[in-house]
Design brief:
245 residues; mainly beta; four-stranded antiparallel beta sheet; 1 helix; 4% helix
């Protein structure tokens, strides 16, 4: 299992990296397989079917389930963010629709955690896909936090949020290595956990239009070159970091 969510039906909803999506009855342990994406995945090492989120209005006219997965071949892998509609009658996910496609992927460093912060906004993480310099390039989607419109009553469903730093871009923050944890606190603060290399795992607070330093800064701005880069690039330091990882 890669993602586990408490569903609006009081079941656990689970993704497996090999491509299975299930609803699990917590009282009996019974598993209901509702989708198998195995035939269309690239699932080597850390890639495959990864993050999942359920639309907050699932029981009120928006029965959508968002997922992130990698596809392609070794050396030519990509990731996409899609949504499915839940078919209540047949207990199945149907009708894949693509929101974001063509994100560079790899066998590792794909990010892909998804979090609905409200009923109109989806946050998604992307890893650097082993192109560490790309994390600083705002024109590509790797090494970023993305912010996507999921307002089911609007006309921009699946597009960039209109109040993103650049309203035509999904990019919300840059300079990430491989963030794979997202959580929102009751006060609205969004926390993200991020894998370091052999040093400097990070716990961050995500903020719009901020730079989180990769690959120029690892952990805090406590080196000479790191401090200069932080001063010039509005770098947000982590709340805490861990070495060794």
């Amino acid at each position: 299992p890669w993602e586990i969510k408490w569903g609006p039906d009081n079941y656990l909803w689970v993704t497996e990296r090999s491509g299975i999506v299930s609803r699990v009855n917590v009282e009996t342990g019974e598993q209901h397989i509702i989708l198998n994406l195995a035939p269309q995945l690239y699932d080597q090492y850390e890639s495959g079917l990864l993050g999942m989120e359920i639309h907050p209005d699932f029981n009120n006219g928006a029965p959508y389930v968002f997922m992130a997965y990698t596809y392609g071949t070794s050396g030519n892998a990509f990731e996409k963010i899609v949504y499915y509609e839940y078919d209540f009658e047949n207990d199945a996910l149907i009708n894949e629709s693509i929101m974001v496609d063509g994100i560079d992927g790899n066998s590792t460093h794909n990010g892909c955690r998804l979090l609905a912060v409200d009923n109109t906004t989806l946050i998604a993480t992307t890893g650097d896909a082993q192109n560490y310099m790309g994390s600083q390039d705002e024109m590509i989607l790797t090494g970023k936090t993305l912010r996507i419109d999921i307002d089911a009553s609007g006309e921009n469903f699946g597009g960039p949020k209109a109040d993103n730093p650049n309203p035509t871009s999904y990019v919300w923050s840059i300079g990430h290595r491989n963030a794979q944890g997202l959580a929102i606190a009751p006060n609205g603060i969004i926390y993200s956990s991020e894998h370091g290399p052999q040093n400097d795992d990070e716990l961050n607070i995500l903020e719009p239009n901020r730079n989180y330093g990769r690959p120029n800064v690892m952990g805090f701005c406590d080196g000479f070159s790191e401090q200069a880069f932080c001063d010039e690039n509005n770098v947000a330091e982590p709340l805490v970091n861990w070495t060794p990882t």
